[in-house]
Amino acid sequence: MKPVSLVALCLLGFASGSFASSFVATTDTIGASLANTVEGTTNVTSSVGDDKVVLEARPDAASFVASEGDIRGVRLEAALKHIRTELPQVQASDMQLAEAILAL
Which residues, if any, are the signal sequence (predicted)? Predict the structure, then answer.
């Protein structure tokens, strides 16, 4: 094998190892963040979790989370308003509530 090919092969090996560990760290961070959000809002959504307005908002909540807040469906808006009306003590962002709705 030519030395240049060997060097290129080694560099590719290191790059893929870095990518894999970076991917794992990123998914671990996202998972931990979501777990903390769900844990913090579980008490909030448990009291409205069986509510039809909230349950019907799950597809809109998924779009909202996936688009990082750019897509705001009518059902999600209704659920957010409903949650805040029923539980005025809730101090969660729209994103946190949407993630909690998805966790129901």
Answer: 1-20
Share of the chain above pLDDT 70, in %: 54
Helix 94-103 × helix 58-66 angle, to 10°: 130
pLDDT of residue 90: 85
What's the one-letter identity of residue 48?
V
Mean pLDDT score across all residues of the chain: 73
Instruction: State how many domains the chain has.
Output: 1
Residue 50: the pLDDT is 73
Region 36-62 average pLDDT: 73
3-state secondary structure string, 17-84? Answer: HHHHHHHHHHHHHHHHHHHHHHHHHHHHHHHHCCCHHHHCCHHHHHHHHHCCCCCCCHHHHHHHHHHH
Cβ-based burial of 90 (10 A; exposed 0-12, middle 13-18, buried ≥19) = middle
Domain containing 70 equals 3-103
